TrEMBL record:
Organism annotation: Pontibacter korlensis
This protein's GO CC annotations: cell outer membrane
GO biological process, one term: siderophore transmembrane transport
Family matches, as InterPro entries: Beta-barrel_TonB (IPR000531), Beta-barrel_TonB_sf (IPR036942), Plug_dom (IPR012910), Plug_dom_sf (IPR037066), TonB-dep_rcpt-like (IPR039426)
Every TonB-dependent receptor plug domain range: 47-172
Keywords, comma-separated and alphabetical: Cell outer membrane, Membrane, Receptor, Signal, TonB box, Transmembrane, Transmembrane beta strand, Transport
PROSITE patterns in the cross-refs: TONB_DEPENDENT_REC_3
Protein name (Swiss-Prot/TrEMBL): TonB-dependent receptor
Length: 884
């Protein structure tokens, strides 16, 4: 007897028993050894056979989390990964990492698949970026479909991702959507509404809240329809979400429309077809954020820039008289009202899958799909806005800037799986091939000296444009063999060979092998003696290699052409690299999974050690060549650590259940070798201010700046330039969760934490410079040198960023009313608080660090610099779900 989520049970029945009704009670399978997964395996395979860890999150676990984007949904759900939103602006980028930072050049965001189709996962600013180079870049993850999800699977690199080849060293997230329901039609209506409030915990001035923020309104409505009969199934969902945001004049509002369908059909006895479609329309309104030049609200208010902007106010807002503050409020209100910055995203995704079973133990699968995403970023600056914020009238500086990005991703995969069993052995053989092609086309078109009221650049006196185009094709074949002995001991072997259009012409096929084992000692007869204490156990270990392919076209030698005095002019372009190849991340890992006291306690522990060889560094040429920097495989990076997670169910009765979960992960990251390359920055500003840097012997993205030494009197004595100021990567992180059920009432809470990282507050540094606050600088230094040394002791503005953040607290109550002759099957009423509590060692929000990425689009970043960035708001939401 099998049922998803429960332990398999074998029964022997007599003829008399077989003809009578049976009551069979299945035990919940918390170890999930017999759960079937697909991510990283080519096709379906049970977890007991795997030498790696696959995290699987089901619909029930996802249902009650009121998230608006997939990374936010997973924030406290993935035990061995860390997800941080870099700001509170709608659609802001995030930092996602699990086993450290394995590249100094490529972003750590995992690749994302929806029903086997590779999605656009850009999580930094685009190459042509729309004024957000150091501000709140828009993330392509923010509009990945959220509705109609059946489950989500996550693998965090190493041997688990080997079969994805040159594209998976950072891990893989796969979203599997619904393709049908039960044998009857089911209708679900779901609504969430509530209040959004600004997170003011980390504001320096009390009056900033009154100056810049408002309470907002959030609403989300969804309708779902599913059903099926025989071999046919269907599922549909449609959703509408609107948030006014918490910034005045709704300057951080978001409106979204989601449509998704899924189908499955049996096309005969041996052929099945599955299809899914989704469409997303996402609209954002943005105010100016971070380092975008001119007036930006948080820089003006919190960084003390009000002392040099517009009418020039007293930068100590809390010390202003009521009359002064009222004047400032009027100035800020007009500056915010006159902004017109909008982003619109349209996204279409589809997946088509055919499965053919010519034999009971042989299956072939052909899959293909498209991800098409179009983003338009429009920034309108009127003469009225510039006159107001600049403090002097202008009539010829109005401008409109448009930044368009179109992404087209095509994915094709064909594979087959054959399963063969003997008395003691089982063999699962998987062979397949995959191809994906990504096209990224960007264009910027700007108009300057344009009249107020214009919304297109057609009337501009000056019009300019720019373009960016990139294409990449990756193709590979893979073979995997999983050998089992008596369903308790398994060996896992596999290899993938890849070609890629970004490889140098002298680089042939790149191979990625893996080998692993898993052993289930609890399946042994001798284990019965301790089964009352250790109810289930699994030991696993593996070694595998995955890759990160280089930037498309970085292998090519080019000549650059730029106009000069109205004529063509040629000069050295990119030198090219015929030996350019992917980064190779080799990972060894071992672990143990235990179920204790009847699986009341589930514990998993493991250790990993990964080495990135052929790491990509941008290398400057000899000055005499006159050439530009070139991407080369010269570095080596190490990540190692322990991963622990546990779930405890101390109480479980028919009426009452209490469960708690926790994870703890350690991380040690280091650049072992830079291949002789000089240190370079991946985020930040000039070397004179603050940067996050890559340098041999240090963690990736450590803080580097001026270190000031003060004498006994508190006066700056000397400054040592470009010193190590702390790592931006935590050495400890994890999450916490609790669930309590009493009959039909459920309470839940989730949190995550980190320890050991540092960040620099540029806001504090500016506040000191503009005289808004002394920020802990000795008075003797101010008396002696005033504030002229503000950049000479950057170490004084660096803080530890340990935190514990409660992401959600909520409750749900379900009832089965007798309404309309049983038409309403179930009613669920809930209340959830999102981001309700923050506990941090830093004076600023440790998460809201600029996304940066000095290496350009898709570049590596570790955060570490807090500068004029909004915190994610709090939400207090009520929900109602009706099932028909």
């Amino acid at each position: 007897m099998r049922f998803l989520g429960y332990k398999q049970q074998q029964l022997t029945l007599s003829k008399d028993e077989a003809s009578k009704p049976l009551l069979i009670m299945l035990e919940e399978d918390r170890m999930r050894l017999d759960e079937v997964v697909v991510t990283g395996q080519g096709m379906s395979i049970s977890k007991r056979r795997l030498s790696t860890d696959v995290v699987s999150i089901g619909e029930k676990e996802l249902q009650d989390v009121p998230a608006t984007r997939i990374d936010q949904l997973l924030q406290a759900k993935l035990p061995n990964a860390q997800i941080k939103l870099t700001g509170g602006q709608a659609g802001a980028s995030s930092m996602v990492r699990s086993r450290g930072i394995n590249s100094a050049f490529i972003n750590s965001t995992p690749i994302i698949y929806v029903d086997g189709v590779r999605m656009d996962n850009l999580n930094t600013r685009a190459a042509i970026g729309g004024g957000s180079a150091q501000g709140a870049a828009i993330s392509a993850i923010a509009d990945i479909p959220m509705d109609n999800i059946e489950r989500i699977e996550f693998i965090n690199g190493g041997a688990a991702t080997t079969l994805y080849g040159s594209d998976a060293a950072n891990g893989v997230i796969q979203i599997i959507t619904k393709k049908g329901g039960s044998e009857r039609t089911e209708l679900t209506l779901d609504t969430q509404m509530g209040v959004e409030t600004p997170t003011t915990d980390f504001l320096f001035f009390d009056r900033t809240k009154d100056l810049l923020f408002q309470n907002g309104f959030y609403q989300k409505h969804n309708v779902g329809l599913s059903g099926g009969q025989g071999g046919f199934g269907y599922s549909f969902s449609g959703g509408y979400t609107k948030s006014t945001g918490v910034q005045i004049f709704d300057n951080n509002s978001n409106e979204r429309i989601d449509l998704r369908t899924g189908f499955r059909a049996g096309l005969g006895d041996k052929l099945t077809y599955e299809s899914s479609f989704s469409y997303i329309n996402n609209s954002y309104k943005r105010n100016r954020n971070g380092n975008q030049g001119g007036y930006t609200a948080l820089w003006f208010a919190e960084s003390g820039a009000s002392a040099i902007t517009g009418p020039k106010f007293n930068p100590d807002i809390d010390a202003q008289t009521p009359e002064e503050f009222e004047q400032m409020k009027e100035y800020v209100a007009e500056a915010e009202r006159l902004q017109n910055n909008k982003i619109r995203v349209n996204r279409f995704q589809t997946s088509q899958i055919f499965r053919y079973n010519p034999l009971d133990n042989l299956v072939f699968k052909a899959a293909g799909g498209v991800d098409y995403r179009v983003q338009n970023d429009k920034v309108v600056q009127t003469n009225q806005y510039l006159s107001h914020t600049g403090g002097k009238p202008v009539d010829n500086q109005g401008s409109i800037a448009n930044y368009d990005r179109k992404f087209l991703g095509l994915t094709f995969e064909l594979n087959g799986q054959y399963e063969f069993r003997t008395d003691n052995f089982s063999f699962v053989t998987t062979v397949g091939g995959q191809l994906f092609r990504n096209e990224d086309f960007q264009v910027a078109y700007r108009g300057e000296n344009i009249r107020d009221g214009a919304l297109t650049i057609s009337g501009a006196a000056i019009r300019t444009s720019d373009e960016y185009i990139t294409e990449v094709v990756n193709y590979g074949i893979y073979v995997q063999e999983n050998i089992g002995f008596k369903d308790k001991a398994f060996i896992d072997l596999g290899v993938r060979g890849d070609g890629n259009s970004a490889f140098g012409k002298n680089i042939g096929t790149q191979y990625y092998p893996k080998v692993g084992f898993s052993y289930i000692p609890s399946a042994e007869p001798y284990f019965d003696r301790i089964a009352s204490v250790i109810s289930s156990a699994k030991v696993r270990g593996n070694y595998g290699i995955a890759g990160n392919f280089p930037t498309p076209f970085a292998n090519d030698r080019t000549i650059s052409f730029t106009g000069f005095l109205g004529e063509q002019a040629a000069y050295f372009g990119q030198p090219g690299n015929t030996e350019l190849k992917p980064e190779r991340v080799a990972t060894f890992e071992s672990g143990i999974d235990l179920g204790l006291w009847g699986d009341r306690v589930i514990f998993s522990g493991g250790y990993y050690h990964s080495i990135t060889s052929d790491a990509l560094f941008m290398v400057p040429p000899a000055p005499s060549t006159g050439e530009s920097n070139q991407l080369r495989n010269i570095g080596k990076i190490r990540n190692k650590g322990f991963e622990f997670k546990a779930t405890v169910v101390p109480v479980e009765t028919p009426d009452f259940t209490l469960s708690a979960s926790a994870s703890l992960n350690t991380l040690d990251n280091k650049v072992i070798s830079s291949g002789g390359a000089a240190p370079f920055n991946i985020n930040g500003f000039s070397a004179r201010t603050i940067q996050t840097v890559v340098q041999e012997g240090y963690p990736i993205g450590f803080l580097r700046g001026n270190y000031g030494y003060f004498n006994a009197e508190g006066i700056l004595e000397r400054t040592e330039a470009q010193q190590y100021l702390g790592t931006t990567i935590p050495d400890l992180f994890g999450n916490l969760g609790i669930n309590l059920r009493y009959k039909s009432l459920t309470f839940f809470a989730n949190a995550d934490y980190q320890k050991g990282a540092y960040a620099s507050s540029f806001d504090r540094q500016f506040r000191f410079n503009y005289g808004a606050s002394n920020e802990g600088i000795p008075q003797a230094e101010i008396d002696a040198n005033k504030r002229t040394n503000w950049l000479n002791f950057t170490n004084m503005f660096v803080e530890k960023t340990d935190y514990l953040k409660v992401r959600t607290i909520g409750m749900n109550y379900s009832i089965k009313p007798q309404l309309w002759n049983g038409v309403v099957k179930n009613v669920s009423i809930g209340f959830t608080a999102v981001n309700p509590l923050n506990f941090a060692s830093s004076s600023f929000d440790p998460e809201t660090t600029i996304s940066g990425s000095a290496q350009g689009q898709g570049g590596a970043t570790t955060g570490g610099i807090s500068y004029a960035t909004y915190s994610a708001p709090r939400q207090f939401l009520g929900s109602l779900r009706l099932n028909f």
